[in-house]
Write a structure and sequence with these properties.
It is a single chain. A hairpin with a 2-residue loop joins β2 and β3. The protein is mostly helical and about 120 residues long. Strands 1-3-2 form a three-stranded antiparallel sheet.
Length: about 120
């Protein structure tokens, strides 16, 4: 992987995890997992003002967690599966590395004879 591509992926992950750093945004993601919703619906479900809701949704959209579409005067937000896929790939790689470390430890412990107590 080229250095530029790695930096691009790292920047995407930074935006993605930043977008989930706020409890209101995590609540929005939890709601949107159930299905698309308008900004008004999201604001009402969280007890937020529309301007605050819009700012949170923009952060989620910039982070790649949600995508929006507009029909008439209503903007609808939905989970962006690509954002979830990027997060899952990152987590899976770290899980794989962690498991490999445990596998090496297990192999070392099996290869090392136990001490006999007198």
């Amino acid at each position: 992987m080229t250095e530029a591509k790695l930096q691009t992926e790292q920047a995407q992950l930074d935006r993605l995890f930043h977008s989930l750093a706020d409890p209101h945004r995590r609540a929005m993601v939890t709601r949107l997992v159930q299905g698309p919703a308008s900004m008004t619906e999201l604001a009402a479900s969280l007890g937020l003002a529309l301007p605050s809701t819009l700012k949170h949704l923009q952060v989620l959209e910039n982070g790649g967690m949600v995508a929006s579409s507009k029909q008439g005067r209503v903007r609808t937000f939905a989970i962006d599966r690509d954002g979830l896929a990027a997060m899952q790939a990152w987590l899976a790689e770290h899980q794989r590395q962690l498991n490999a470390g445990f596998d090496r430890l297990e192999a070392l412990m099996r290869a090392t004879p136990e001490e006999k107590k007198p």
